[in-house]
Amino acid sequence: MVTTKAPTHVPGRQRFGGLLNGDYQTFLALFGFGALFTAFQNLPKLRDFLFGQSVVDFPAVFGLLIVLCAMFWRGLLRRGFVWAEPAALTWMDFARVDRRRVVVKRMWTLWAGLVLVVGYTGALVTAIGGGAKDVWIAMSALTASGAILAAVTARRTAIRGETLAPVVLAVAGLAFAAAGLGPVAVEVLAGALFVVAVAVAFGGEPMSGVGRQELVDGWNARLLRAMAAVFMDPMLLIPESKPVPWLSLRRPTTLRLAWAGVLGRARYAAASVVIACLVGVAHLAFPAIPAAALFTLGAYAALVPFVGGLGELWRNPGRRRWLGASDWELRLVNGLVIALLGLAWGILLGLVTLLLGVAPVWPVWLAIPLAVFAALRTATRPPMNYDVSGGAAGLQALRGVDVLVVGAVLLSVIA
């Protein structure tokens, strides 16, 4: 008789993420699913909020879903699922448990969550617009093919230049929205993505076979993010910089360190391009949403990863004394560098809006310098003061975001 080994449960780890334990996780899951279901009961209100009195532009909605698939793909290519708690990893090695199964399970859990977000967005917007049967088929085919492509690329080791692939897909979404292509073209694109997924599925080493050091490094990064959330320190969420050899060999100055902080995070440039595409297509697809709000949030999300270098210096007095630069010099030099990045991102967004044939009024473009100022304000936040009440501590954590929200509201009123 052939027997199969029962799955081994790691001691102390909740099954199903704690969703069935009757604790707060269960409440949040029930509340979340209830909110998602309730949205389909308020389609007229959502239609007024997203489209107003305008006719639903399904080509623009197709383009939006394509760009969302690109963001989903880019997020999964970060491979944030490659981690393991050192204690659990030691136990698994002692008990001869296959660590690959743990990594693969976590990848599929993250993948399923992203598929849910993209699929739900497509289904909700299609239901709001009263899409016909061919629209539903095209949306489903695109979501399924994009999910398959993201899974087969994320489960294997990195391919050189793979971060450019989501950018290409996002540009394709712009082209679909600008050309007004219909469901048939979307189904053709879905078929092409599936063919690419089949071609990429063969070859390469699975990410589940990574070594112990990579798993522990991933755990350390995850633990840092968790502690940043607990202690309300958003600057710790900004990714670490990679070394820039040609700058590290020269005498450090404020300007060189500012550029090193930016160039060391150049891997997030592709995500910034995808965000610009998403903002432009969302402005075309949802005309009732104020463009100032979309531009402000998009610019802030695109720029805030690049202020990590300033944030590291600001929260480390020893490094600031070693550099010998004053506070105003750090703000001025890093502000100029981030302003140049903001100008470049604004030009990119201008090209996107020009391609889509939308022309926002001029006050909307003030969202770019507003986002630059908000990002710098976030990076130069003073240390948290935990002697105050919880509400005041929360306001400290929102430094930068407060200016962003108030400025977006004012720009929406002016525009």
UniProtKB/TrEMBL annotation:
<feature type="transmembrane region" description="Helical">
    <location>
        <begin position="164"/>
        <end position="182"/>
    </location>
</feature>
<feature type="transmembrane region" description="Helical">
    <location>
        <begin position="332"/>
        <end position="356"/>
    </location>
</feature>
<feature type="transmembrane region" description="Helical">
    <location>
        <begin position="24"/>
        <end position="43"/>
    </location>
</feature>
<feature type="transmembrane region" description="Helical">
    <location>
        <begin position="362"/>
        <end position="380"/>
    </location>
</feature>
<feature type="transmembrane region" description="Helical">
    <location>
        <begin position="266"/>
        <end position="286"/>
    </location>
</feature>
<feature type="transmembrane region" description="Helical">
    <location>
        <begin position="55"/>
        <end position="74"/>
    </location>
</feature>
<feature type="transmembrane region" description="Helical">
    <location>
        <begin position="109"/>
        <end position="129"/>
    </location>
</feature>
<keyword id="KW-0472">Membrane</keyword>
<protein>
    <submittedName>
        <fullName>Uncharacterized protein</fullName>
    </submittedName>
</protein>
<feature type="transmembrane region" description="Helical">
    <location>
        <begin position="188"/>
        <end position="204"/>
    </location>
</feature>
<keyword id="KW-0812">Transmembrane</keyword>
<feature type="transmembrane region" description="Helical">
    <location>
        <begin position="135"/>
        <end position="152"/>
    </location>
</feature>
<feature type="transmembrane region" description="Helical">
    <location>
        <begin position="292"/>
        <end position="311"/>
    </location>
</feature>
<keyword id="KW-1133">Transmembrane helix</keyword>
